[in-house]
């Protein structure tokens, strides 16, 4: 299960995420669709700990991934389109 509550992120004068709310229950499939610049990549990067949020909460299987960073990372998998190594 993934639950996103009021997720926000800005880059200087651009609001990439304006308060996303999303809930995906166990067994459901979902896709993030939208035009270029809609915030899809930013959202995925925040879920996987590659970008810091400005505001909001994300729970994966009930675990707050910002309070329990390593437990949250264990529950997520990411296969990028190109080589994108996490420097940490």
Give the SSE map.
Layout: E1 2-11, E2 14-24, H1 40-47, E3 55-60, E4 63-64, H2 69-74
Antiparallel strand pairs: 1-2, 1-3, 3-4
- What is the overall pLDDT average? 88
* Main sheet summary: 4 strands, antiparallel
Run of helices and strands: EEHEEH
Tally of helical segments: 2
Number of strands: 4
Helix content: 10-25%
- Which stretches are poorly predicted, pLDDT < 50 over at least 5 residues? none
Which band does the percent of strand residues land in? 25-35%
Distance between the termini: 26 Å
Alpha-beta classification: alpha+beta
Oligomeric grouping of the chains: single chain
Radius of gyration: 13 Å
Strand order within the widest beta sheet = 2-1-3-4
Approximate shape = globular
Overall description:
With 88 residues, this protein is α+β, with helices and mostly antiparallel strands. It has two helices and four strands; from the N terminus they run ββαββα. It has a four-stranded antiparallel β-sheet with strand order 2-1-3-4. β3 and β4 form a beta hairpin. The longest helix is centred in the middle third of the chain and has 8 residues. It is globular. The model has no long low-confidence stretch (mean pLDDT 88).
